[in-house]
Write a structure and sequence with these properties.
about 230 residues, alpha+beta, 2 domains, about 40% helix, elongated
């Protein structure tokens, strides 16, 4: 129902395919089921007020992942630190306090930075487990506060009925990809240039649709007469 060919190395900005589907069919889809690459804060905000309900991966925030570098013991991962909302600080497993330093506005979120005192880190007996190597000199923790619409989407995708719908993505969407690659042989283009490659893609998609149409006609013809 909609396709395009792009030269970008990744396709997270290609949710415009929804608009092409709407142009071709005359109506917007009730639900928009996308994979994890499309679960960005930008896309969540862009589709929050749209006609199609968005369903995708939970899109967990990855800002903490950078502190799970090799050498840090699991008991000192950032998710083991306890946040005190009233005092606006973190307490880490060794009992020290990480104080709020600054915040940074992100698209659809605010990232806050918390830092331990240098003297506490230097004298901490768990330094090699918590801050291996020379950097960082002190332990840091980043807290991401999501935009309400982003937080609501993540909460929705925790619910069982939406997780069940999301599991259908691979068997439905990947079938079209497999058809183009295996049956139509579209693993590389025969012509150079975006315009010519788009023409090849158009014919490939058209042939897939014709095959589906033939299959549906055959099913109807096989039904017993009433």
């Amino acid at each position: 129902m909609g396709y395009d060919l792009i030269q970008s190395g990744e396709d997270s900005q290609e949710l415009a395919a929804r608009e092409r589907i709407e142009q071709h069919t005359g109506q917007a889809p009730q639900q928009l089921l996308v994979d994890g690459n499309y679960t960005t804060r930008q896309n969540i905000l862009d589709t929050a007020q749209g006609p199609s309900e968005r369903i995708g991966s939970r899109g967990e925030d990855r800002s903490q992942a950078k502190l799970r570098h090799p050498g840090v013991s699991p008991e000192f991962f950032s998710d083991r630190f306890v946040f005190d909302a009233q005092q606006n600080h973190y307490t880490y497993p060794a009992g020290q306090i990480l104080l709020f330093q600054n915040s940074q506005k992100l698209l659809g979120a605010t990232q806050k930075r918390y830092e331990a005192r240098a003297r506490n880190c230097q004298s901490c007996p768990f330094r090699t487990q918590c801050c291996p190597g020379k950097r960082p000199r002190v332990r840091l923790v980043f807290r991401t506060e999501e935009h309400p619409q982003v937080a609501a989407f993540r909460a929705k995708m925790q619910r069982g009925e939406y997780r069940q719908i999301y599991r259908q993505r691979s068997q439905v969407a990947e079938f079209s990809h497999a058809c183009l690659k295996q049956k139509r042989g579209l693993r590389q283009f025969l012509r150079r240039g975006l315009k010519k490659a788009r023409t090849e893609l158009a014919w490939a998609c058209f042939s897939c649709n014709v095959a589906v149409w033939i299959r549906q006609v055959w099913k109807v013809s096989r039904q017993p007469a009433t």
